[in-house]
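User: I'll paste a sequence; please echo it back and then give the predicted structure.

Assistant: Echoing your sequence first, then the prediction.
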Amino acid sequence: MMLLPTSYRDRILSFEQSEENVRQGYAPADLHVHSSCSHDVLPFPDFHPEAIYQEALKKDFAYITITDHDTMEAYDIIGWDRERLVTGVEITLRDPIRVGHTIHVNVYELNKKQFEELRSIAVFDQNIETFISFLRDQNLPYTYNHPFWFVTHDKPNYRAVEEIIELFPVIEYNMKRVRRKNLMALWLAAKYGKGIIASTDTHIGQLGRAYTLSKGDTFREYFQNIADCNAFIVPQDLTLKNLNYEIATWIEVLFNLDETTPGATRYTGIGVVDRFINFCAANTYEDYPRVFPIMERCFQELARTGLFSLLYLSSQNHKARKIRKLLEIPDLA
């Protein structure tokens, strides 16, 4: 961390340190949160948009947002005008010419019409310059999420990441990414003078385990302070403990679902775990009355060993070292 400018090092706080900043008027917000409206969140009551919103109120977030994947259905469910609510969405964009791989962009304070326009650009134009131009023309706040995340079957263009960062006002430090990847994102944010947020990107209702502290009587002021590097982050990384907890939560939720969820999707990013989740989500005890209890016990025991988590974290750290050397980023870990 010593290779980071002091102005950025001093913006990274522990949970204990953040309490003093709160007393000084800095307010917390977790600006990357998913509900059951996302394709990769199971239809469990605790993950319903209203449940997510109420949980954020309990945590006394200054601003509350739900950033589901390519949908704003959550706001149709809970309403578009609620106390502290800021509309948000995580948009999937793949520009095959300029970028080459899939990126995720959080956009805030947008309406339905603006969302539909952005989705059209993302799906049909597939042009990051057009996408960013629209955001700027509409004066919408936006962030570059988890810069070193890549879709499994994408061929990542590592060198494009640095070019993309230059286009964004704010870069994310993401709890679902390993420390090496988060520190590389942080280093590039410092290199280009970009604002930073820390968020959970939670898909299992873990709001506020990482968050941003900023000031602002409106969300625009709050976000502008982040972009101007006048904010603080209270981050977390993907650790063995965090990943084990996430897998255990998925397994517990799976066997308490009231409905099936057909269709394959990624939940944890770990192939064998996601295949198990998809199988169970698409079936019920009634479909396989003898097999399901055995599967549940076996998978729970396997998950408790931490083997899946260890292998996944090892592969992610290996990729991170490869990216760091290619981009000539100092080893900050």
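The chain is about 45% helix and 10% strand. The two ends are 7 Å apart (CA to CA).
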